[in-house]
Amino acid sequence: MKPLADYHVHTGFCPHAVGQIREYITAALEKGLREVGFCDHLPLVGTAEKDYTMSRDDLSRYVDEVMAARSEYRSEIVVTLGIEADFFPGFEEKTRELIHQYPFDFICGSIHFIDGWAFDKNEAKSDWQALDVEDIYARYIALLGDAAKTGFFDFLGHVDLVKKFGYRPQRFLAEEWRRLALILKQTGVAIEINSSGLRKEAQEIYPSPAVLQIFHAHDVSIVFGSDAHAPDEVGMDFEACRQLALAAGYREAILFQKRQAVKTYCLS
Ligand SMILES: [Zn+2]
Ligand SMILES: [Zn+2]
User: Fold this and answer.
1) The whole model's pTM is what?
2) How far is 225 from 228, CA to CA, in rounded Å?
3) Which of 70, 130, 158, 235 is an S-S bond match for 31, by CB 3.0 to 4.6 Å?
């Protein structure tokens, strides 16, 4: 069965996405999804970068509008309130303060910054040529592990986003990924299978088949996300995501409510 829920949907609340909450819900209904999880960016706490998150003033309005849509569409689709939060070492208190103020169903933990460098922004593309790719991957994977240990996050988003522009290390960092998988297993943090990598230079779903196999071997649970930034991207390439999950050995995915994994559903 096709993934039932898309847990990574942005809206026009974020400056780099377009469309209203209702348009995304309509798109989810048209795609036959049973649940749509809004996952706009929490205002950043550890950097002055403002291009891609909603403003602090908009956060309450975002929560109110998603909650209103949840009631309005109750008989048609489950609308879930999520947020995509960056992990910034050293800013844990500020992050905690923001996420505990609202009744989120899930918190997606993402790494978009390595020591303040926004490695996945288009402006960063040229930086990559001069860098030690393997070192960047290792630091990125270590940050994911640190993020999981904070307890702030229910799942980690686009787990190998570091490949976005197609830069890949000479060797597969199996040991580093295994270490991360072990942390996820111990902390109970799930991961997201995110289709947006297919729309980038990486040309591959996040995470890669080899990484996903390691997560499966460690019993790490999965959710699905499109990372839609426009309504027509909701649920995009979910059949390919399902096939990837099945090939790695997964037979089910999980759903969240009020930050608890409440249900699993079958993928086959
Ligand atoms: Zn992201
Ligand atoms: Zn996102």
Assistant:
1) 0.96
2) 8
3) 235
